[in-house]
Every structure is written in structure tokens, then in C-alpha cells.
Amino acid sequence: MLIGICGGIGSGKSVVSRVLRQMGMTVYDCDAEARRIMNSDPGIKCRIRDEISADVTDGESAPDRKLLADIVFSNEEARKRLNAIVHGAVRSDLEEKRRPLMWVEAAILAESGIADMCDEIWSVESPPDIRIRRIVARDKIAPHMALKRIASQAAEERMLRKFDKIVKVVHNDEFHSILAQVENLLKDIDIAAR
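-> C-alpha cells emitted (194 positions)
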């Protein structure tokens, strides 16, 4: 069984993943694995140089993540090109590491094609003001840039609607316990499959 963990930037997907890991569950972090692949795969680095910007990487060194983020969060075409470069490599890596019961955390679960692989999806949701505060604090950017990053993922939210039948919501705000919600969701899963 593969369970997706999704939610927009600043929603708190990583908090849910951390809780699961502390419970002994296996969670594949698409962002971390994409970063590893971008830093180590010569073909990926060259494609980023050629298709995104030579300022981001010379094709040999690891991409400058901050500059890359600035480019793709302000240019929809560049974002789509980067996603096209990285998604296939991440899906292949996930298939190689797949276990009988596993979670996969991804900001763009539907757009990457990983949602199609999932049996269930946990959507982490937070109010916009909380998300903006988290992004500003974590990434050291201005609130208007945080809003731009949130807006860049609007298409993902629309794409996820086709998976409504397998989506379960996890509220990450000041009123709900993440741990209690995760424990309740786990009751519906055959943990023996682990």
C-alpha cells in the first residue's frame, strides 16, 4: 500500500512525515530525493543548465537551490520544465525503493504523476496566514514572495480533485492534534502489511 502525503507549501507535510517516521513507518520524501538526484545525476544537472539556466549550474556542480527556486517560482514555464526533468527520475527511484506499506511525501503529488501510484492520499491543510508565516520564517523571504509560491501551486490543488475518493484530510492548525489525526488514520490501515 502506497499512501501519498500532500499539501501546499507551508502546510506542514513534513510534520506528518516526521510523526510517521517516529512511529517506525517508511516515508519517501520526494523533495529530498529530487535534491539528491539533482545533485548527483550528471544528466539531470546538464538538462537543468541547458533548459532552465546556466546561472543555476554549470552542468557539473550541484544546482544553486535558492536561485533555482527564485526562477521557477516566478516563471511558470521554467517550473514546468524543471518538473519534467525531475519527476520521471523521482518516480523511478520511488519504484525501486517501494515497500509493502509506505508513505510518499510530495508537494506536487498529482502533477508529478505519483498520485496515480497511491492507494490513499493524506492532504495536509493549513490556513493561508499560518502557511505564509511558516514560509517567511523558513525561507527568509518577504510575505509577497511566499504568496507567489503558494499561488504557483494552485494547479496542483485542482489536479488533486480527481483523487477526492481516496483523499483524507489532516488539519495542521492551532486547533487539531497532528498525532491524534495520524493515529486515527492508521487505524484504517492494515499495519501488518508493514
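The chain has a mean pLDDT of 92.
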